[in-house]
Amino acid sequence: MENKIEKFEDLLIWQDGVELSVQIYAHFKECKDYGFRDQVQRASVSIPSNTAEGFDRLSNNEFIRFLKIAKGSCAELRTQLIIAQKVGLLADSTELIEHTKKLSAMIQKMISYRDGIRKK
Prior knowledge:
single chain, 77% helix, 0% strand
């Protein structure tokens, strides 16, 4: 049986983005630097949110556009995690950083796939 994508919740990039966001909230829930914590959380939430919004616009071009925004948010989050470790807000951000790299690669594959459909 084929795994047909019928709704954004079926997308692995959306599922992985939600999981990453949940992990970010858990890691930063005790952070007293509220501005930084809020920015990190917003960046993490932006990834699956933009994936969902783009998918539900029912336009390949719009989906690609929102996937690019999600990928940008993933890079923003990775940068924030590196900073968080360097300033001592996270003891070790390696696992989270690797998660952002994996998710960014997944998003890029989807962008490339959808771009190929657009050019046919």
